[in-house]
Each structure stands twice: as structure tokens, then as C-alpha cells.
Amino acid sequence: xxxxxxxxxxxxxxxxxxxxxxxxxxxxxxxxxxxxxxxxxxxxxxxxxxxxxxxxxxxxxxxxxxxxxxxxxxxxxxxxxxxxxxxxxxxxxxxxxxxxxxxxxxxxxxxxxxxxxxxxxxxxxxxxxxxxxxxxxxxxxxxxxxxxxxxxxxxxxxxxxxxxxxxxxxxxxxxxxxxxxxxxxxxxxxxxxxxxxxxxxxxxxxxxxxxxxxxxxxxxxxxxxxxxxxxxxxxxxxxxxxxxxxxxxxxxxxxxxxxxxxxxxxxxxxxxxxxxxxxxxxxxxxxxxxxxxxxxxxxxxxxxxxxxxxxxxxxxxxxxxxxxxxxxxxxxxxxxxxx
Length: 339
Known about the structure:
With 339 residues, this protein is of the alpha+beta class. It has 8 helices and 16 strands.
């Protein structure tokens, strides 16, 4: 292989690109050799069981690995090999797992960060021995918000050549939370990570996503989270989802401790006098967790929903979901007999 190779490093992700479609050695010389080299450095690498179970035809293209407190996901897709690293000791925010957290390098211990950087250097050095290599790093930690936006525009394939930025072509990609159509550069209001409202300036990113510079920080928000006009009560937090998720965790903990008096109080705070329902996912053979995020194999970790919430979600995907009533009865909305 002598064709040039492009390497893009962002956070704990490294992507290896090669554009020559006539070269059919990419899988063996890059994907296969990378796995063998990492195994030689002490990585335990095998098939991705979840992909193998549900999408067996893709299984040869997906591998997972572990070494100490580090885990990795390796994937080949066309002319690119991607490797994502994350740490089992990092602070977890995403309920679906540390693999899906943002800023994974920041969350790692110093030792794990150094180990990932060492893997990057070793991969780059190995590829430089095979072909000419161009390395791009997209880490923006020390850049100002506006410079980060400009850098994103410069790197984006979706940027209009004349304007130098992406253009929003569809109204549904710019419809705000209060029903207005957003304009590039306008003043907006958004909730921060704790639900407090901030005033800032919005710049179009891609699809429904908009960059918002507010409170000295840069946010990447969906248009459905952005207010085009100042909300009436700026002191009220927009954290209903986080509040309910926290209360449901406390409810589950109270039940596990058999503190049924506290559990009853928490249930009344969340649902009032309404009965609660669960949602069963047939394909996962598991229950929805709280706030439609993740799955639980048992009822102890299952999320609770009002009848209206559970029925609306099940009707949205009737061929996959069933509503579980308080008495344990499953209700299907696709005409199929439920369990």
C-alpha cells in the first residue's frame, strides 16, 4: 500500500481514511493488521456480541477490545477504519454507557489519557511506515467559542462555498421550541446542562442542530431546545426530564430498601394518583428505563410511565413495543397477541 492515508483524531477517537477504491488491500493491511498489532501490545480483542446477535452480516467489520481499565470499539466501513477508546473508571453521564459520553478524554484518569495518546502515536508511527500520512487533530479545548465554530465550518463538507458555512434549507430544521423560525446569528435563549436559561447567539450547524454561544460557553443544541423569544419566567428551570429521572431513581432505591412509605411519597410526587405502566421492547426482550433512555432486563430497573405516555410510545412503534399494565398484563397495539 502506497496510497496516501488521512488520519483524523478527535477526543478519544481515531479515524484512518484511504480514498483509492482500486486498492483492495485496505481490509487486510489496515483493519486486520491494526487488530493484530493491538493484540501484540496486550489488548484482548474479539467480536462485538451485540452486533453479532442482531446484525450477523456486519459482525466481521466490528470488534471490541479491552486492556486494563480501557475499552475500545474497532470498526471498518468502506475505506475508513475507526477506533474509539473509553475508560471503565471515568465518570459516566450517558445512561447507555461510557462509550456514548462526550469528552471521554477529559473524563479519564491521567494515566488512561496517556495510554490512549500512546496508542494514537503508535498507530500513526506504524501507518507512516506504510504510506504518506496526513494527521488532523480536531481537539478544540483551548479555542474560543467563535473560533471553534469557524473551525467546524472550515472542516464541514456541508459548508456553502460562497458563504463559508452550512445553510439551513428546510424549515423543520430551524423551528424553535416556541414555534418560530430561527435565523443564523439571531439572539436566542437556551437551557444549560442544569436547566437554567441563558441568553446567547445561535449559528446554524447541521440538520436540526445549532451552535449557541451563551454564558461564555459553546452549546450544540437542537432547534427544539431553543427559544427565539424570551420565556416569561427566566428563573424557572427547564429541567423536567432530569428532575423526573432523579425522582424515579430515588423511587427505585426506596423500593429496593423496602422503604415503602418513602416510595409511596415519591410515587405521588411524580405521578399523583395515576397508575403507572411499563414499556416492553420485544426486540431487546427488556423494559424501557426511565425517560425512554436505555433498557433493563428486570422490573426493578424499569422506568414508570403514565398510561398516556406508555400508550403514545407503544403506538409510535407498535410492531416492537408493548404496554405493561399494573397487573402485569401486556397490551399490544399492532393486533398481535401480547404475552
